[in-house]
Amino acid sequence: MIKSFHPPQRILMGPGPSDVSPRVLEAMARPTIGHLDPAFVQMMDELKGLLKAAFKTDNELTMPVSAPGSAGMEACFVNLVEPGEKVIVCQNGVFGGRMKENVERFGGEAILVSDDWGTPVSVDKVKAAFEAHPDAKILAFVHAETSTGVRSDAQALCKLAQEYGALTIVDAVTSLGGTELEVDAWGIDAIYSGTQKCLSCPPGISPVSFGPKAVAKVQARESSVPSWFLDKKLVMGYWGGEGKRAYHHTAPVNSLYALHEALVMLQEEGLENAQERHDHHHQALKAGLEAMGIQFLVEEAYRLPQLNTVIVPEGVDEAAVRSALLNNYGLEIGAGLGALAGKVWRIGLMGAACNRRNVTLCLSALESTLVQMGAPVNAGKALVAAEAFYKG
């Protein structure tokens, strides 16, 4: 007979999901009420306000999609891309490739701008793409590429799109709450994220925000949005306005409790303080890894503090290392994706997992494991370097 499932305790320092705060887990266990209950509707209004603050936007169409970050991505493309339109898509990792696929599935023409994995999107290449295709309607790019840990210059890319009269769609799945992100100040038209990264929430919800120009395009569409569930004109009857709601779907009530609590915690800490915390512990982890002899994939100026992609030392079985960390220490780090499979580890410092204890555990466990495997690392130096950083 199958019995209740009780998962093992893990410390999640991979590319996501990240550790969930006990406060957020407690919020999920609160009594389920109806998704049209007046008390729940009031919570929805608060949730929208909290999301606006996290995105740094006044966009009225700011809401959580009742599905993972991939659905937030699809919500942006399915509403904004019409058949035959040109969309400049930037790919410097796995998730730019998913953007391209969305464009093509919805009848658009993807104009691909490619950069090496681990490098930021080239503003000059994007400018050249606009020069070659001045009729492009949208520029789509990943702000924080989860497959490589590289940050692209969203502000410069959005400014360039504005110069050519194009809208922007931005992937902020890994950046929201962990690194600088200014939706209104940078002129981002449509953006999506996920709850399972720097917000320290369980996966399954995707915050999105549509600016005035994006909303106007949705309203002026000549063709119907080819997704009933993700059609923003329909779902706004449930999430739009203040107070009264029209039924659209049964929202994941308890998951939204969790997001509300996570955003309350972000509000209490302060958005800038949370970003500084991610950078602070990243610097300690960096000091330890480099002292050990581990090299980073991404140049320092473009690294994401919350997602550290490092090169596997020569001759090391990277999967065996991850397995040993999981089995011996209950510690999860991530493997490489796509072109980087087998070549890198992705070490996450996201949300609740971004703390001194985890930095220390990761460095000591990784060093011990590599030494036991005979890897060419500098033993005994990682923790000393990290502690020296913390002592200032």
From TrEMBL:
Keywords: Aminotransferase, Pyridoxal phosphate, Pyruvate, Transferase. Its EC number is 2.6.1.44, 2.6.1.45, 2.6.1.51. It comes from the Bacteria. GO terms for biological process: glycine biosynthetic process, by transamination of glyoxylate. The modification N6-(pyridoxal phosphate)lysine is found at residue 197. The keyword Transferase applies. Its cofactor is pyridoxal 5'-phosphate. One of its GO terms (molecular function) is L-serine-pyruvate transaminase activity. Substrate binds at residue 346. Pfam families: Aminotran_5. Residues 36-337 form the Aminotransferase class V domain. InterPro entries: Aminotrans_V_dom, PyrdxlP-dep_Trfase, PyrdxlP-dep_Trfase_major, PyrdxlP-dep_Trfase_small, SP_NH2Trfase/AEP_transaminase. Belongs to the class-V pyridoxal-phosphate-dependent aminotransferase family. This is Alanine-glyoxylate transaminase/serine-glyoxylate transaminase/serine-pyruvate transaminase. The lineage of its organism: Bacteria, Pseudomonadati, Pseudomonadota, Gammaproteobacteria, Oceanospirillales.
